[in-house]
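Hi R.,

As promised on Friday, here is the backbone we talked about, encoded as structure tokens. Could you run it through your design pipeline when you get a chance and send me back a sequence?
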């Protein structure tokens, strides 16, 4: 349960990836689907920054009395996981299980609220098989060797980039545009016929495993679709690197099966960088949450640091950023430890206003810092009141900061 905080009838406004600013409804059921991890490595700060952003959305909507249903998948069978398990001579299931446990621990330490559904792909194989069967009924599936592909051509009119650029990105992000036998370079894989030594499942299409995009669509449709509106979910989230091909393909698959739109809103997070480049395994510039925690870094300092810049901007992690967050969190804690502090009502109203405006955490943190400085300023001693508990509860509920 979140501490009770009145949001003063301020609805949450977000900047949608495709529609500019949108105002989220605050009085009805709201469904949120965020693409989860592939558990072949520890949680890095790029993951943490993304899930923290949707945690803030989850908190704000919950405090506004919205019945929010949040689903997140886990891609616990995929090429990177199998390659890592093979490299390290591990059972792929044991590797996935250990990394899922570590992810949950990391998110808990950072006080990221768990989703309502945390769904493994390996527990959803029948959902995927059923979804592919529905696609086959629509005559938009074809076979190349032992593999099944989706005919995406009718959806390419919705592309916001050129097909040439799309093919380039597709190749970089798990696609196989050069596969001989495909009808279109951008057609995504639905079902991968089994390769020797790899896991697989029986299906009407042969022994094998699902493709990437169809997993998320099958899970979202099962857990979140209300079937009474013209879109399946309210909000699709994830890092901006998922805009294409993943979320584009997900929308195309849903439209083919249901003749409805996939998501009413799309809200993506910016990338996290380190040493001048986007964090990625291939570049070897990952900073892991678990390593920071093991080194004694306060999880609330990590959380604060990840909110210093806006969630939709490119952000750089650095030792200077960590030092700044450490100093600022110490200042807030010093103020909260006082029995009497500067009056909080005005600051809390400002805090709610800036967070309601597309989660403007940089301004939110500056408001909190201003309040702390006013509370510690000796010249304000005659104004101080016994309200530190109210500020503490507000920071906990809105920002997940247990200080």
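Update: got your reply. Pasting your designed sequence below so it's all in one thread:
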């Amino acid at each position: 349960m979140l501490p009770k905080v009145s949001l003063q009838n301020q609805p949450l406004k977000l900047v949608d990836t495709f529609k500019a600013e949108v105002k989220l409804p605050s009085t009805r059921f709201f469904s949120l689907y965020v693409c989860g991890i592939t558990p072949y490595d520890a949680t890095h700060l790029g993951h943490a920054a993304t899930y923290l952003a949707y945690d803030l959305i989850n908190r704000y909507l919950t405090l506004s009395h919205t019945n929010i249903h949040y689903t997140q998948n886990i891609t616990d069978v995929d090429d990177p996981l199998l390659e890592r398990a093979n490299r390290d001579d591990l059972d792929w299931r044991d590797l996935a299980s250990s990394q899922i446990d570590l992810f949950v621990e990391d998110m808990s330490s950072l006080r990221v609220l768990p989703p309502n559904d945390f769904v493994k792909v390996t527990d959803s194989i029948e959902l995927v098989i059923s979804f592919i069967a529905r696609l086959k009924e629509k005559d938009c599936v074809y076979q190349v060797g032992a593999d099944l592909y989706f005919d995406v051509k009718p959806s390419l009119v919705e592309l916001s980039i050129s097909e040439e650029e799309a093919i380039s990105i597709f190749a970089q992000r798990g696609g196989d545009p050069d596969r001989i036998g495909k009808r279109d370079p951008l057609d995504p894989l639905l079902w991968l016929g089994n390769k020797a030594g790899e896991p697989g499942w029986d299906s009407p299409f042969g022994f094998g495993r699902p493709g990437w995009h169809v997993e998320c669509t099958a899970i979202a449709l099962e857990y979140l679709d209300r079937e009474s509106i013209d879109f399946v979910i309210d909000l699709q989230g994830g890092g901006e690197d998922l805009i294409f091909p993943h979320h584009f393909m997900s929308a195309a698959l849903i439209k083919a099966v249901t003749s409805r739109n996939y998501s009413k809103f799309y809200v993506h997070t910016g990338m996290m960088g380190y040493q001048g480049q986007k964090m990625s395994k291939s570049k070897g510039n990952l900073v892991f949450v678990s390593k920071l925690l093991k080194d004694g870094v306060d999880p609330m300092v990590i959380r604060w640091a990840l909110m210093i810049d806006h969630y939709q901007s490119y952000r750089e992690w650095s030792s200077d950023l960590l030092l700044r967050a450490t100093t600022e969190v110490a200042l807030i804690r010093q103020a909260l430890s006082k029995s009497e502090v500067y009056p909080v009502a005005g600051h809390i109203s400002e805090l709610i206003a800036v967070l309601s405006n597309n989660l403007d955490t940089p301004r939110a943190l500056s408001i909190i810092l201003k309040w702390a400085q006013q509370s510690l300023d000796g010249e304000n001693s005659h104004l101080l009141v016994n309200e530190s508990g109210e500020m503490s509860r507000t920071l906990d509920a809105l920002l997940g900061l247990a200080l």
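One thing I noticed while checking it: The domain at 13-269 is CATH 3.40.50.620 (Rossmann fold).

Thanks again,
M.
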